[in-house]
Write a structure and sequence with these properties.
By secondary structure, the protein is α/β, with parallel strands linked by helices. It contains seven helices and six strands; from the N terminus they run E-H-H-E-H-E-H-H-H-E-H-E-E. A six-stranded mixed beta sheet has the order 3-2-4-1-5-6. A hairpin with a 2-residue loop joins strand 5 and strand 6. Helix 2 packs across helix 3. The longest helix is centred in the last third of the chain and has 16 residues. It is globular, with a radius of gyration of 16 Å. The protein starts with a strand and ends with a strand.
Length: 192
């Protein structure tokens, strides 16, 4: 595989982000603010040499990616199911406050990168990380520079892969630039 640059960003604000709910693989849509964030993201992408857009197959990422692709006059985004957020039957739909009440410290530890474990019935971190790694490699093969719209948990995996301390506490439409190649994945800094 040849190396490729991936500009990895989190999707725009979803209705559940606005309510501070754990979405996981549930599929809440973007809010009006989320669509505005995607439009601002498209402006940041101009001049970055992006030749393709890819997203997870969840609507909040797809909607964000489609807004950017249309603004940049690129083909519709390629959907990569491996880039879906980590699933948790235990946490999905709960607010941050409900998670803290039931599982004190678990959410902060996950987001901050000090624990890979989620409580209850949740996708194993190793399984999640392997899936995300496949998705990052698939994205890098699409074009020399790809915008990949993903989810907060993907950044938690990125921090583990690159040992950079990147974590899941990222604002909507923020991100990182990475290089994906045969020798691995490296984080080269902020997306913009």
């Amino acid at each position: 595989m040849t190396s490729g640059e991936v500009i990895l960003v989190r999707h725009g604000q979803s209705t559940w982000n606005d309510e501070r709910r754990w979405a996981g693989q549930a599929d809440p849509p973007l809010t009006d603010l989320g669509r505005k964030q995607a439009t601002r993201l498209a402006e940041l992408c101009r001049g970055a040499g992006i030749a393709a857009v890819a997203t997870s197959d969840l609507s909040r990422a797809r909607q964000t990616g489609l807004i950017v692709a249309q603004a940049l006059e690129l083909a519709p985004p390629v959907q990569l199911p491996d880039i879906r957020e980590r699933w948790s039957r235990t946490l999905t739909g709960l607010t941050a406050e409900e998670i803290e009440d039931r599982f004190p410290g678990a959410l902060a530890a996950w987001r901050g990168g000090t624990s890979a474990t989620l409580p209850g019935d949740s996708e194993a971190f190793d399984t999640f990380a392997a899936r995300v790694g496949r998705g990052l490699h698939a994205a890098a093969c699409l074009a020399p520079v790809v915008l990949l719209v993903a989810h907060a948990g993907i950044f938690r995996v990125l921090g583990d892969i690159t040992r950079t301390g990147t974590n899941a506490s990222l604002a909507n439409t923020d991100g990182r630039r990475i290089v994906v190649g045969a020798s691995g994945i490296s984080d080269t800094g902020p997306a913009f």
